[in-house]
């Protein structure tokens, strides 16, 4: 604890964002380059060394937050990077993409603004790359055992890196043409530029991990055949079966799933397309769904030059402060948060009729109507009560040339045949069944991440990857020294 009074004398200061008018003209990250390091050491000083750090419990990775806060406050970046990487394979991902449940669990957050844990984490990760602390760590010797990892999102990459470092020969199979899963084609570059992903992939290649792109297991290569070629298989395909909106007019043109829309914008950034065939340019856009995916669509549509963008959230507008009775500290509260995309929409007034920023809260879609060519032109909605029941007399109509459905995901997509070919048991909600050791009912086949847990956060995805790696290592060798931060049955803290 470098400054015992830091939490009393230093106010919270977040990484500043670039001006809205500037950042919406490009796809670069929204934060001011170079503006984090000058403030982060004093922010780390605010860590209280509280004795019982609930930030540990709030983070499924078990990040050693007070330790690396102390090291950053002393500007010992090498030691801080070592402590951070001891629990997290990809802190530059979580430092940009995680909603930071650790900050909700910060003891300081009981009655003050929490420590900027996420910013400190990101600063350590970036400094580690700049100073050469993130070197490849190939194994000293090979085990002679082989593992196939299906899916290259954060779970698959974390599992592959851990197993490679343990000495196993690992190949990652990805159905898309590039590695990264949703981090590649689902997350917009303004939230995380892709060079962060590229350098981790190169690190993994240098360690010995093999990558097989444009290979959908179950379709391009049989799942049973793949299983026969490897000593173990890890399924980390994510939860990509999107939820539908079964209302009248859904068949009209111009109504797309968010994960049909977002990858095209990312492919423009990758240089694959000159312009997205679903571009929001000049269109009235309505996003159905109030979560992070909807916010990603919002920021993307704004950058593409939409005429207007409105986001519908079926839940009531949250309060600005934690409800101590319903969601007491240290649980992660549902409060009103202003993402970078919502800040942009608010300042640019993309949806003048919205309740706040671009969002209409407590709003439920009733139907769509279209023109003579079968293309959507309007969305009809109603306000709802806390039980999602329509409130009489609250019907409204919004102009809509492009509707994006961001309603979440129910489990892994079964269209490629992977689950059926391996005869895997599934839960009623569609996720893959597994036991306490992450093993499925098919011998030698393990399941991790959203494919088995269900839609979750990136920190849970990485924790699942690390834990399943320990389980596979134990299956292959009889024991394991790899860390297993969570079990398949662990869940976020709730009341």
UniProtKB/TrEMBL annotation:
One of its GO terms (biological process) is glutamate biosynthetic process. One of its GO terms (molecular function) is metal ion binding. Coiled coil: none annotated. It comes from the Bacteria. Residues 38-69 form the 4Fe-4S ferredoxin-type domain. PROSITE patterns: 4FE4S_FER_2 (PS51379). Gene3D superfamilies: Alpha-helical ferredoxin (1.10.1060.10), FAD/NAD(P)-binding domain (3.50.50.60). This is Glutamate synthase subunit beta. It comes from Streptomyces muensis.
